[in-house]
Amino acid sequence: EMDPFFEIRSRSNSHEPRMRQANMVLEAITDVIRAQTGDSANNVYPPTAYFAALLSFLERDREADPAMVAAIMFLLATVIKQIKDAVLRSRYERVTALLFRVLSNHSEDVVACRWGIECSVYALTALQSKHWAGKGIGPKSVRQLFRALVIFSTDLRPRIRKSAQVVVASVLESSMTRTKTGWPPKAMVVTLQEVVGTDLMNCTPKDCQQAMFACGLLQRIIHFLPYPVARTIMNKLFSLAAKATPVLLIQAMRTAEAFFEPSEIKTDNMDQKTKLMADVVDTVLAIRPHRADTDTSIAYLRAIVKGVKSLTEASVLSGSGRIASAIMAISPLLLSPRAQVITGSTQAIQAIVSGCITPQSLISLTSSRALGGVSKLDEIAEAVEALLNMKYKTAWGNSFAIAAELFKVVDLREHKCVGKVVIALDSLQQGGLSPKERKSLDQAMLCCLRVSGVEAVLGVLPLDLPTQDSPTIQNGGSLSEAIARSRAWLLPILNQGVRSGPHTLSLYFEHFWPVREKLEQAARALPKIGKVTEARQIDAIAGGVWDCFPSFCYLPSDMLTAFSKYAKPWAVAIQNTSGRGRTHLCKGLAILVNSAVDAKDQATDEDLKRYMVDRKVIDQTLATASKFAKNFLSILFKAAMTADDAVMPSILQAVSAMSGVAKRKTVNNLFIALLKTILQSQAESGASEMSEAKITETHKLAEVAAACIRNLDSSSLQWVTKVFLPMLNDEDPLMQKKAYRVIKEVVGLHADYFKAHWNPISKSIRDALASCPSGVGKARLGCMEVLLPKLVDMLPYHPEALQVMGSFVGEVILGCKEPNHKAREVSFNLTVTLGKMLMESNANPATLRLLSKPDSSVKYPLLNEYVAMVCGGLAGTTPRMQGATVTVLARLVYEFHEDIPQPTMSKILKAVNVLLGERSREVIKAILGFAKVMMIRVNRYTLQPFLPDLINGICKWADSSRDRFRFKIRGIFVACANRFGIEALQTLVPQKHQPLVEHIKKEVNKKAKEKAERWREHQEDAKNRGEFGDMEEEDDYKGSGRGQKSEIETILYDDDDDDDDHDHDDGHHHASNRRHGAQEEMTIIDPNVDFLDQNVEGRVVRGGASGVRAAIERKQGTSLMPGIRIGDDGRLLIQEDDEEEKGRGGGMDTEGASRPRGNKKRRRGRPGGGGTPAVANRNHSGKRFKAKRAGGDKKTRETRVDPYAYVPLNPAHLNKRKANRAKKAFEAVVSAAKKGAAKGAKLKKMDGGRKHRARR
């Protein structure tokens, strides 16, 4: 049997008096038990024996020492946890009486009370409902103990109060499960009502401390009280809170919020609960907190949101009827001077609108409209509309966000009352909105478009574009007025919102197409009558209408309706228009066809919902597209010949889409005709020199041919290879690019054809390298990106494909050094992709015969062979090839460090160590990146034998000021220290570079401490963060990830600051340093600073990291460095003493010692930051040039103030008499300064004259 006091006995030798006292009492009680029952095994007795002995001791010693009683209660609280409820019920009167006596007699002893309260929870939760019943509504001792606990729950001592509140809540919760009514026993309820009611009645608005403590109890138990009792207590609480301090009002709001929390209590009287919740919500809504009181406002918002949501869940009719009232109650807080309150108010209204307006609640919200009255939804719309008037001008950005939330849950097509909000937004659009507010307004309209559709929005807000049908022109207005009053600002929003909202393509052809034609006609006619400005404006509006066209083409169902009906004008427009019109027409055609194809490829009906089409009509839509494909392809082919570079991409998209759905025979016939035209052009070029127009036409024909590859048969593909493979050696670089693109499409889209003709295609691409200029490298790499993975797939059937693939590896390696970023990215990705595919190829036994000597111990032999191919580049004759190979090896090691066998890894390390003797900067830079990868990814046991040679070879380049590899080497040392430990690094690094290792050690320790501190602060913030805890406004800009590097890119290409500096001249370099220093400067200001305060300047500290440190140290009242302190007003106080001067000098800057200076100047540090940090101890302080008798500025007898010293200003000196007195005090100082200056100028003049005569 386990000792219940094992932990207490184990701490018998503790220095805590409490534990020593508890062990003394425990030994005494154990002796008593031993005397009564005899010895036991291991001196351990059952918990019931200790429990009975402790109770007996409490009964006998009524006048015991408080410390003794505290120790007994501590032991009793430890052992009572192990006593069964049946035992406690059998002695409940004795136990409760003893606990009540302890709490009564020792109420001043915090320790005894705490343990007594903890014991009470076990004694009372063990009781059943019959123990609370009886003549006196429960036995006297039970009622007394419970009453004492309720009294202690409002005690002044925080620990006692919190413990009692937890115990009372636990007792109430446990008792509810043991009664028939489902509520706590009547005795408990009566006691709570008496004690809490008395505390609330005895409080006054000025003295409400007990009421605040009672709120803490109510927040835990309000769910367990019957509704009439809860109603009475809540009425008393809010009556007092309305007149008391804001602190009590905050607690009352938190109590209401706790009451609104969902409860697991099941009751039959839901109407009574709903009515009580409605009364509490109405009471909260009637309160108006001050706008500038942040804490009260936030508590108020929490209570309203929770109350309205809970009431809506309990009763849709009651809750939805109070949504408008809640919005109007919260609205004044949008004008608060506190940003946290404004953001919280916006979020609160959004939460109410989105959480309470549901499809079910909309029925009750619009029920009274059928009877001719004003519905609740009309009131909500009016409340939101009221936020858009001039009263809330400063909060319009937040009002627009609230309107957007309303548009998300209310459809304008079904509820026209929301239209007044849309009209209000339109009236504000022409106002002086800031860019942020305009963006918020556009988002609100975008939400309305996505939910309600373009037709519903235009029914409320017609575009009224400046045509002859415009209402302004019809009423006699001028064209300029019509342009100004048109709603052309909606066109960009329509372009974004149409594609994801309800729309049809017929709507565009019926409403937008005629208007666009009229606008273009007016734009062409107006310049003839001298209205050039109006013509440009109307042309821009017509362009906006064109921009909307592709957004109407995302529904596949429109293929059967609108496309069949308007295919002819669509095709004619492609022929007759040019520029932006043709671009959007072709782009819309490609989108419409591709959406139908994508819908057919969807696996389930759920996926088809996104396309708003049924599976039964998908085949019909594709048949319709195929029907018109021939005519459209002919038109597109002709349009491509006359298109400019801006229109050509959209035409090619349309050609690719239409050729994919057209009949194969049709596509092949058109394609053969296209090839004949290309061959004819080549024949003409052979006979005579081609004109520039003919060359351009041939280029466009090649691009169109690449777009048609998808739907060709094998015979046409043979013609493709016959025509375009020779073009890889064409003298025209642009024609080579087109040919590579065509071959790429053939290889990627027709796997069966490539399997049959892979050898001639690969050979032609390989042989074309000799005629490939530098500008075609990206296109060639793009072709190999498709070709090489296909060759890997061919290995099980054609083992010789491995050799063909190997012939391209060197070219891929060199691609990693291409100037074009995308080309480098393709090369790197291709190297990794090939490695992964070769790993998967090992699963096929047929591939193992490719190796002449397969090694059974190698897990992935093909990957090992591929790495060996790459290693061949280390023997290259140019630094470019060697550096590129090392970089590729670093990438492969990073990706496959666990899969490359250890012997291969060792060979790589040996070869790289040999290259450390090279003098090429390009090679060494690649090796440094490779070394860092090895430090981070490779197995330490594999790397450890080569570590000394690697570190020694790297250190040779640390002193090279010309190459500037210091930062990279430092990064390698840090990675080595993290992997092998700082002690191992110290043994490997030569003595010359040990200061750098010491600096790294300090930095690592410092960062570890800072990380632990940040984590601790984050945990504390997370505990204090609630629903509206993050009330600060969101930033306009959020990082999009553009320009962010991956982990491998960070390892290979970081720490290049010095490398960049090396590429510029000195003047440029110093300018960049100055800019860098300016960027490092920052302003550290208290977020709650009042800029109208005269002393605000003293609370601003300039500087980078040192500025942050200065601000922190100023708040803590500490000094920045010896002799420099921050005064109370924020200014620097500098004290120069002889002792301070003696303390300067000596020491060594370990970081500076490890940095080669090069040829650039070092910038002197400033105490506030910028430039090189100032160092207190310097070897060359100038002390030895100081005169021995120089003791600083001379002091006169009349004053004790040093000349030029800073003297804090005293407001008392503003008095004239005191000002004159202060002036006299400084007269001697000023006169002495003037004399000294004059004397110095005279000596300088005399000295200058002597030098002038000496030169003569």
TrEMBL record:
Q: Which UniProt keywords apply?
A: Nucleus
Query: Where does the RRP12 N-terminal HEAT domain start and stop, copy by copy?
Result: 12-264
Q: Which residues form the signal peptide?
A: none
Report if keyword Metal-binding is assigned: no
User: Subcellular location, in the record's words?
Assistant: Nucleus
Q: Which Gene3D superfamilies match?
A: Leucine-rich Repeat Variant
Give me the stretches of Basic residues compositional bias: 1157-1166, 1180-1189
Which family would the database say this protein is a member of?
Belongs to the RRP12 family.
Query: What name appears for this protein in its UniProt entry?
Result: Ribosomal RNA-processing protein 12-like conserved domain-containing protein
Supply the source organism for this entry. Answer: Lotharella globosa
